[in-house]
Amino acid sequence: MKIKVAIADFPPLIFEEDKKYKGFEIDLWEAIAKINGFDFEYEKHNFKEIIPLLAEKKVDVGLAGITINEKREKIINFSHATLDSGILISVNKNRNKLNLFKSLKNIIIEGHRMITSVALFLLIYIFVFGNLTWFVEKNVHTFSTNYFPGIFESFWLTIVSMTTVGYGDYVPHTWLGRIIISVVIFGGAIMLSLVVAQVTAFLAVKKIKGEINNSRDLLNKNVVTVEGSTSESILKRVGAKIVTALNIQEAYTKLKKEEVDAVVFDAPAVLYFEKNDKDNNIEIVGEIFDKQQYGIALQQPDILEEKINQAILNLKESGQYDLIYRKWFGEDLVMEI
Hints:
The protein is of the alpha/beta class. It is built from twelve helices and ten strands. The chain has three domains: 2-85 and 292-329, D-Maltodextrin-Binding Protein, domain 2, CATH 3.40.190; 100-209, Helix Hairpins; 213-287, Periplasmic binding protein-like II (D-Maltodextrin-Binding Protein, domain 2). The chain has helices spanning 24-36, 47-55, 70-73, 100-110, 112-137, 147-162, 175-209, 230-238, 248-256, 267-275, 305-318, 320-329; strands at 2-7, 15-17, 20-22, 39-44, 61-63, 77-92, 222-226, 241-245, 262-266, 282-298. β7, α8 and β8 form a beta-alpha-beta unit. α4 (100-110) packs across α5 (112-137), α5 (112-137) packs across α6 and α6 (147-162) packs across α7. The longest helix has 35 residues, at 175-209. It is rod-shaped and about 105 Å long.
């Protein structure tokens, strides 16, 4: 019987290079298969498909950094634990740097209420003082005596006076007109200061909200993870806005395009992508949380389970497991928790 082994992209546990599958779990499985003389073939799937395929007995073995948990053990079996792991958070290094385009986008999209209220107030301010100025100055040849175009000339004087710039096109000739324009100048200066303060406060809040340093900071953030992974339930628990991807490569593409605030996923994959990021734009924040263990996923019940478990014990006792581990994770046992 040829064993069907369902796999999914999960660097450095499983990935494809030069038309060959490589990685920690590939080496471990092939060592297990060699001990037992298994004849097998790989079938590549999306991660979310593997457990249903096992439950429906359409494949015999599942490999893809599959976390052992009570919910999954109700429908499939697992081998002995093959790797300690946990969850890590990955973010863009430039997440807190000022980005003019992004800041303007935030103001337009998320600060539309603020913009609308300010714009409405300014229109009313210009309309009221423009009409007052025209009424006072219309008979002294400052503006046209006709409401149109006289009112537009008065509006122009009001606007340039608000900005304290003034262009000299129109100058009030009456003392009452000068008093009105003086009020416009001082009022405009105050309003401009308030608008600047409000925009600055808005951007400051956006920057603070954008900071992610640990799992508690994920509340209401847009966070991407692999669909069907245990990270989904963890993100629901911490109140994140979940964005799903078919694989970890797609998740990091979304992060680099700044479509999301963070990637949250299994530590081996996060460490691998941080280490191999050519652009050096990714960094890991916080410590490993929600510690877990991976196992080889099997059908329920499964005649292979005992043979696989015995092979895992043999590999650990002989030191071959350690050799495979160090090949993919180095001398620093960063994944031991």
